[in-house]
Amino acid sequence: xxxxxxxxxxxxxxxxxDLFTIVEFQHVNPGKGAAFVRTKLKNVKTGKVLPNTFIAxxxxxxxxxxxxxxxxxxxxxESYHFMNQETFDQIFLEKELISAPxxxxxxxxxxxxxxxxxxxxxxxxxxxxxxxxxxxxxxxxRGNTATNVMKDATVETxxxxxxxxFISEGDLIKVDTRSGEYSERVKA
Length: 188
What we know:
Layout: E1 2-3, E2 12-15, E3 18-28, E4 36-43, E5 49-55, E6 59-62, E7 65-75, E8 80-84, E9 90-93, E10 109-115, E11 120-125, E12 129-137, E13 150-155, E14 160-164, E15 172-176, E16 182-186
Antiparallel strand pairs: 1-6, 2-3, 2-6, 3-4, 4-5, 7-8, 7-10, 8-9, 10-11, 12-13, 12-15, 13-14, 15-16
């Protein structure tokens, strides 16, 4: 058991029966009354952030969570298959555990969060940006560059992304996996 003095950003604790990561914390020592720790906790499974206050010196249950590098292999319709790059063991994850499954392409490296005590997989995080090829988009009209006009495009994974008019089929683009937005064109 640890106490609130052991708080640090990124620490995973058990709180109300769930796993939470400490996003931010602040020790407060008012002139009158007991000291306390104000925190923002992020649920590891759902990603929801909630504020909470702990009394200084409270006991907390620290959990051990590891992040391992895996390679995406394929999707069989029901589950996504990944391979550990060190041991070559294969695992299967449900779509709900993956942060942005529509941007996964075969051979891509991802980070999978693993809870060591329950031996369960908690989440699969893609890199912040992925490079994808445009497989279909309408041709852009000449002269429509005065405003920031966007058009629909389909990338190699089948996802739809809004891109600028100058992007054409076969171009490589960088997509932000957190928001699903176009970031920039990549030179081949």
